[in-house]
Amino acid sequence: MKKPTKLFRSMNNEELMQYAEQIITKMRASEAVFPEPVPGLGSIETALIAFRLSATEAAHRDSRAIRIRREKRNELEYLLSELAKYVDTIANKDAVIIQTAGFTLSKDAESFTGVVPKAKGVVAEPQQVGSRRIKIKVARWKGARMYRYQFRKKGIETEWSELLSSKSTFVIEGLERFQEYEFRASYLGINPEPNYSDIVASYVV
Asked: What's the CA gap between 148 and 187, in Å, rounded?
């Protein structure tokens, strides 16, 4: 699924200016494709000029000038982000049209829409003696929106207890001391169907 990138924060000031200039130039040259840009290219050009002037003023490291430069940059980023939405609507996932507008393509999100990969690198680590805690770690996956952790006592065919977290490291509390538990984890992505890791085991102390 192709979209125009909105990752402006990764660009330095000069790169952002060049990127904005490229978009303005290419979209004006493709008026038949983009007849009524929202926001208008004139407003983006005005914001670009203001940002360029503020960057020049801030070159001497004056704190007030630096604050103004940041504000002008934020304004330009906002307008470009809104324009990206317009281009995305016109392009309807067509990479050629997006590039015609001068935008670079975002990383292909389609790689995250299928079945999530099997979770890997799961490790269960006992915490301090008497804490009754186990720290679970799993290798991070860029497409993960959440991580699902499951646990149960080893040797007992009971239902898995589970917990959700937005992080790839999680501490499970309140376990029984001197008992061995089994653990597994899964990524949850655009496709919410889990794909669990191999089971690991650890004693609780």
From this structure: 6
Does residue 97 share a domain with residue 13? yes
Domain count, the chain: 2
pLDDT digits (tens, 9 = 90+) for 17-70: 999 999 999 999 998 999 999 999 999 999 999 999 998 888 777 788 888 999
Assess whether 131 and 93 both reside in one domain.
no
47, containing H or E segment: helix 41-57
**Per-residue pLDDT tens digits for 133-149:** 999 999 998 888 889 99
Q: What element of type H or E holds 112? A: none
Distances (CA, A) of 99 to 16, 115, 156: 16, 29, 57
Token pair recorded at residue 196: 């669990």
Sign of CA dihedral 148, 151, 156, 159: negative
Which CATH number belongs to the domain containing residue 198 in this structure?
Answer: 2.60.40.10
> What is 63-102 written as a DSSP string?
HHHHHHHHHHHHHHHHHHHHHHHHHHHHHTT-HHHHHHTT
How far, in Å, CA of 90 to CA of 20, rounded? 19
Tell me, yes or no, if the pTM score tops 0.70: no
